[in-house]
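Researcher: Please translate sequence to structure tokens.
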Amino acid sequence: MNEFDHRWQTGAARAREAQPSEPAEAPHGFAQRVIARARATPATPLERIGERLTWRALACACAVLAASLFLELPAAPADESFLPAVETVATELFWTS
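Model: Translation complete:
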């Protein structure tokens, strides 16, 4: 058994014997300090460009969605019962003599 295996076995045995400890709580105000520090850090120019492009892409996607709805809703049938089922169409196409 080499040195690594011996240390591994020793560490594993100690870990099995150890009692689980209570998780430590964060100090009071820790989350607020983390958020304040993150907001105080200025964004890099690359991050600003990426954010701007992301908002533009979202606006374009919403515009395409709105245009698609505007163009397709008038053409949508009011009642779906008049549309033939896929099975009926497939049967007529492939099983007619």
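Researcher: Any highlights?
Model: Residues 45-73 form one domain.
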